[in-house]
Structures are given as C-alpha cells and as structure tokens.
Amino acid sequence: MVKRKYANKPDWTRVLSKKFTTKYIKNSSFNGYASVICVEKVREPLIKNMFGKDYCLVDDGYIWLEIVPLEGNYVITTMYNSNKEIVQWYFDITKNKGITEEGIPFFDDLFLDVVILPNSKVLLLDEDELKEALDNGEITKQEFDMAYKEAKEVMESIALDINKLSDFTNRYLSELMKIK
Predict the structure, then answer these.
(1) Distance from C-alpha of 12 to C-alpha of 77, rounded to nearest angstrom
(2) Which Pfam families match (predicted)?
(3) In 17-161, where does DSSP find H-type helix?
(4) pTM of the model
(5) DSSP 109
(6) Residue ranges of the alpha helices (H) in the chain?
(7) Contact status, residue 78 vs residue 89, Cβ threshold 8 Å
(8) β-strand partners of 92
(9) Which domains does the chain have, with CATH numbers?
(10) Measuring CA to CA, which residue among 79, 65, 143 is closest to residue 111?
C-alpha cells in the first residue's frame, strides 16, 4: 500500500526526543519545502549495512534534512551525523506531495528509493516492493514506469555531482538551522 509520510515523522518511535522546523523556500535554484529534524535522544541507533559496511543513520545528535521540491517526483532526505557530516542522501520516489493544514510537508511514497553515499556509491532499493505493488494493483503501470524513470534520472544526473548535491543540501541545512 502507498504510504503517506510526513516531514515531522510523528510515528518515529525510535526517536524519543526531537526538534522540528520547516520552511517554504523559493529562489532561483529551488521551489519547495525544507524541513529539519534535530534528533536529541534515540531509543537505539539505526544502523544499516551497505556495500559490506555499517552506516549509522540516526543516533543522538543526528540531523535529518528533508527537501520536498514542488517539481519532480522525489523527496531528498539528507542524514547528518552529530558532527554535521553527511552520512547519506536518501531519495524517496513519490506519487504525490503536499502540505497539511498545519503546514507539515508530506509525500506519498512510491516504494522505489535511491541512496547516494558521500563516496559516490549509489544503491537502488525496494524494486521488489514496487513490482509487488504493481502486481497487487496498488499502483498503475504508468506509476510503475514513472518511478523507474525518476529513479534513473536521480542516478544519472543528481548522483553524478556529489559536490553540487552536498552544497545544495548544506545550504538549506544552514538556512533552517538559523531559524531554530
């Protein structure tokens, strides 16, 4: 089933204490929402193994920056460790995006995800979930094809310039941290 996900992550049980802020941004390089979750305390760290190495994705002092562009069918979550170093960029491929009456950005997750690591390694995740959603009639063939097209575009354009991606996300992290 297509899941609606909210930038403030209200059901994030791993995180015991957090601070959240969000802002609408429109300039020459971006039009959309940027949100920050500053994780104060977790029940336990979240660790994932990628390419044979363990990566801690959330722990005390970590920051998650979520960028929701109004154009395109993706959302970028940048995970920073407690030293404000990028751990990874996580691209959710999306069906719909919007904002709640309370001003919280949300998106409908279309299963397929792209992970980009600071060392330029790229992973395509959850292809099996996307295929299963198509087989079960949860998504259309058009949505299935769009998800792959969007993921391919992320991998072939955005993922190619790690410095540009890093500068982009660091800019909005800095901007949102000023208003906290």
Answers:
(1) 15
(2) DUF402
(3) 127-135, 141-156
(4) 0.95
(5) E
(6) 127-135, 141-156, 162-178
(7) yes
(8) 75, 113
(9) 3-174 (2.40.380)
(10) 143
Location of structure tokens 């540009």: 164
Q: Which residues contact 47 (CB under 8 A, 6 or more apart)?
A: 54, 55, 56, 57
Rounded to whole angstroms, how far apart are CA atoms 132 and 66?
27
Q: How far apart are CA 106 and CA 98, in angstroms?
A: 5
Is the alpha carbon torsion for 166, 103, 9, 153 positive or negative? negative
Residue-wise pLDDT for 86-144, tens only, equals 999 999 999 999 999 999 999 999 999 999 999 999 999 999 999 999 999 999 999 99
Distance CA 65, CA 80 (A): 8
Q: Do 21 and 35 form a contact (C-beta atoms < 8 A)?
A: yes
